[in-house]
Amino acid sequence: MPHPPHSIRLRGPWEWAAAGVKPVRATLPHTSKLPGTLSRRFNAPTGLEDGTRAVLRIADVPLGTCFMLNGSMLPPAGPDEFSADITALLTGPCRLEIAMPADGTISGVTLDLHLPEPPEQKSV
Q1: Which of 34, 50, 59, 87 makes a 20 to 30 Å CA pair with 117?
Q2: Fold of domain 6-18+26-114
Q3: Could you tell me which of 26, 38, 87, 27 has the C-alpha nearest to residue 62?
Q4: CA–CA gap between residue 77 and residue 81 (Å, rounded)
Q5: Residue 124 CA, distance from chain mean position
């Protein structure tokens, strides 16, 4: 039976930056009237077992939103929710950037850790 994922909510601190505007602290959910970038630094989880997958999930994603982790562009979002396996990109300090269109809202960001399946027990 698979383990349920261990979820880490990336609550804050977030930073919001729009063109021509000084960056400011932001909280989630975040709505902006201007296009700009919502960003957050976090450390990669430690002590993960081989086979653990890290999946980034973002709820209520506006159309046209782009995602970058540690300088690598992530795949585009589906309608309303974004989900991507970011296991290979989790190295030391991480920086998540979410480029949002005007009048967009990001409700929440979660890092789900999917642990590997335990080995099957053989009955004696």
Answers
A1: 59
A2: Jelly Rolls (2.60.120)
A3: 38
A4: 6
A5: 44
